[in-house]
Amino acid sequence: MLMLQDREDRADPSIEVVGTPEGDAKASTSPSPTPPPPAPSTTPATTASPGATGPSPGADPVLPAGFVLKQDPAGFTVGVMEGWSRRQAGSQVFYEAPTGGDYIQIGIVKNTPMSSYDNFTGLEQKHLAKAGSDYERLRLEENTYQGRPGALWEFTHVPEPEESDLRRHVIDQAFVAADGTEYAILAAGRADMWDPAKDVVFSTAVGTFKVG
């Protein structure tokens, strides 16, 4: 959606993917202390097509084996892996793998003043300015999600270069709903475990996400 905007209530992947989702909330906040690097995860990799449009109206989404549909109290539905735990920090909702290595993050920003693409391009500048992050853009492009203007951002970086050289892969689909609320659907995990051909985590999230 990661991830600059220093305004509160803005989804910011440059924060929560800088090390760990622990304590992350919005832009203009500082990441909390990073726990020890997670062990390699056995959860599936995460990526998605920019053409993903979400669930068809009125249709029950078909979930891959090992996934459950969560009706989240923050006001959305999304498919996540069984056993992943929910945590909320402000307007950011996380579903985290038991290993601590992978997670889904849903960011909600009401009355956003800019497009998702403009937000991402601004957030990217923070990554480029961070010493030692070794940021590498894989793609950053405007798209349409569920009939609404959106953007897809995919990159790798080293979240905490002063602590570890562990490289993280991040992919974030954002869009602005008709009421002016921006939703960001982000998946992050170890870059060395990511395989786009085997993705089910992010593709399931963007394929099942529904407001309400």
Automatic annotation (TrEMBL):
Region Disordered: list its residue ranges: 1-65
Which intervals carry biased composition (Pro residues)? 32-41
Q: Where is the composition biased (Low complexity)?
A: 42-59
Task: Specify residue ranges for compositional bias: Basic and acidic residues.
Answer: 1-13
**What name is this protein filed under?**
Serine/threonine protein kinase
Organism whose genome encodes this protein: Streptomyces pristinaespiralis (strain ATCC 25486 / DSM 40338 / CBS 914.69 / JCM 4507 / KCC S-0507 / NBRC 13074 / NRRL 2958 / 5647)
